[in-house]
Structures are given as C-alpha cells and as structure tokens.
Amino acid sequence: MELALIGYPVSHSQSPWIHQRFLNQIKTTGRYQLIEIAPDQFETEIKKMKSMPLIGFNVTIPYKEKIMPYLDEISADAEEIGAVNTVVCHNQKWFGYNTDGVGLTTALKTQYPNLFQKDKSVLLLGAGGASRGIYHALLKEDFANISIANRTLSRAENVMELNVNNKPGEALSFQEAEQTLDQYDLVIQTTSVGMTPNETEQVIDLERLKQGAVVSDIVYQPFLTTLLKSAKEKGARIHHGHEMLLYQAKLAFELWTNETVSVEPLIDEFIQMINIK
Ligand code: ATR
Predict the structure, then answer these.
(1) Quick check: 181 and 207 in contact, CB under 8 A?
(2) 81 C-alpha to center of ligand 1: Å?
(3) 101-240: same fold as 2-98+243-273?
(4) Ligand 1 pocket, 133 CB below 6 A?
(5) Which atom of ligand 1 lies at the shortest distance from residue 155's CA?
(6) What's the CA-to-centroid distance between 127 and ligand 1, angstroms?
(7) Of 27, 47, 48, 64, which residue is the catalytic one?
(8) SS3 234
(9) Burial track 172-182 (b if 16+ CB lie within 10 A, e otherwise)
C-alpha cells in the first residue's frame, strides 16, 4: 500500500512513523514516502504523481491550498476551510479532505468528553490556517460561545466569517482575552508561539484562567510548552499538541483504507520519541 506526504520541507515529519504503525495494526505491508517538492517544481511534480500507484497522500505546508485546483472533488468541509491535508486516490481520481480540525476535536473528546456540552465556552488563540480548521470543527459542536483572539484582530474577524449560522462568539485582542479568560472552559492555542527553539514564549498570560478549565496547545515540540506548564501550575487540565497530530493521521489513514485504527498504542512511544529530539 503506497502512501505519501508532499510539502516543503518534509524531512523532519513524524508521519512515516505514525502511518507505519497504522499499517502494522491492519496487518498490511506498505510505505509512507516523503516527497519534498520545491515551490518552482510544484506543477510538474504533481502531474508526475498522477501516475504513481498511490492509495492516498497527505499535504502539508506550503501546499494545503495550492493542491486544491488539482483535485477532482473536494469535501464540503475542506472547501469551506479552504485547505486540504488529505487526498484519497481512487480510479485515477483525487478526492480532497481536511482532517486537521476534526483531528483536534476528536482527540479532545477522547480525553475530555465532558467539555463537549452546550453550556461550555471556547477561546481560540491565533487566526492562521490551523485556527481556521479547528474553528470550523468547533462550529459543528454545541458550544455556548466560540471566540477567537489574535495579535492581528482583522485576521480573527476573517476566520469568524466561517460562522455562517451566527453562533455566539467574538474576535478579541490578546489583552481582551487575558482580561475575560475566566469565561472560558476550553482554551486552544493554535499559533507557533512557544515552539522550539522559542520555548520560553507564551502567547497570553493565564492569570485569570477559569478553575477547572482545559488548556490545549497544538505545539508539540517541546512536549510541555511554557503555556501548558503555566496552565498546570494554575491547576488546569492540559491537552498536548501531539494528540492533534496523531488524530489527524488516524482520520486520514481511515479515509485511505476504510479500516479503523487506534491512536492509543502509539502515544507513549511517540512522546518518548519527541522528548529525545
Ligand atoms: P498556521 O497556518 O500554522 O496557522 P499562519 O497562517 O502563518 O500559520 O498563522 C500564524 C498564527 O500565529 C497567526 O495567528 C499569527 O498572528 P497574526 O495573524 O497576528 O500574524 C500567530 N503568530 C505568529 N507569531 C506570533 C507571535 N510572535 N505573537 C503572536 N502571534 C503570533
């Protein structure tokens, strides 16, 4: 079974390790190749890929949007998000999906099922591509409020245009978010702030964090980001970045194979692996 990842760069990706384990779970031989495509080669290389015997592939930075015109069909979710991270290849046709946001909500639901209730409020930090996918997935759930805080307010407002049903929520500055933090049961950090080598950075202060809140950070290197450390010190429950990575991979693998795989057996080894790096 031939799988792949396209992006630039891709050499540090953990995805081959993850998908090899999923292949083992379903007792199938195969490989997950890393295909690094330089930006000026994109069109040529994508056309070459059409003749490769792939079951499917993942798409990462900087091609999640650029791949879209080359697809035969795009799921409604991926179309709305405006980005594709998973392509299923079938009968010479390519089908695009986005499993990033639902990857995070599935992971959160597994660890903290009680968070997904209609009286709960969510604060997203950041308004880039990752935030957009997560916000889209959160809108499908029954929350009382989903707000977005970002350094550049207009980008938060832009992401909130996905809220076509006018569910409650506001675009906020980081300062406003810090001041109203005690209103949120779940805080999700979606920027690259705090990622190695800038490990000491923290996007907002958690001084006013609500008692019993869950803080989720999509950054997974380092394993315990400064934000998560400070959440823990405030007595909050935390959710680590590798969870989203593993669950978006699970959902992609299931789209390719129509088989169900489990993230649980990978977690301890995966954490050890990223801690060594
Ligand atoms: P991605 O697709 O990974 O989400 P992106 O589209 O470049 O990346 O978005 C990056 C996000 O991180 C944005 O919310 C960005 O804030 P701005 O919209 O104001 O640029 C945020 N970000 C990046 N570096 C930041 C920093 N040093 N402080 C605060 N926010 C930062």
Answers:
(1) yes
(2) 17
(3) yes
(4) no
(5) 18
(6) 7
(7) 64
(8) coil
(9) beeeebbebbe
Q: Any idea where the domains of the chain sit in the sequence?
A: 2-98+243-273, 101-240
User: Residue 183 and residue 205: Cα distance in Å, rounded?
Assistant: 15
Q: Is the CB of 244 under 6 A from ligand 1?
A: no
| CATH T-level fold of 101-240 | Rossmann fold (3.40.50)
User: Digits of tens for pLDDT over the chain (277 positions)?
Assistant: 999 999 999 999 999 999 999 999 999 999 999 999 999 999 999 999 999 999 999 999 999 999 999 999 999 999 999 999 999 999 999 999 999 999 999 999 999 999 999 999 999 999 999 999 999 999 999 999 999 999 999 999 999 999 999 999 999 999 999 999 999 999 999 999 999 999 999 999 999 999 999 999 999 999 999 999 999 999 999 999 999 999 999 999 999 999 999 999 999 999 999 886 6
The answer, yes or no, to whether any atom of ligand 1 lies below 6 A from the CB of 194, is no
What CA–CA distance (Å, rounded) separates 87 from 89? 6
* CATH superfamily of this structure's domain 2-98+243-273: Leucine Dehydrogenase, chain A, domain 1 (3.40.50.10860)
Angle, CA 167 vertex, CA 255 and CA 113 arms, to 5°:
55
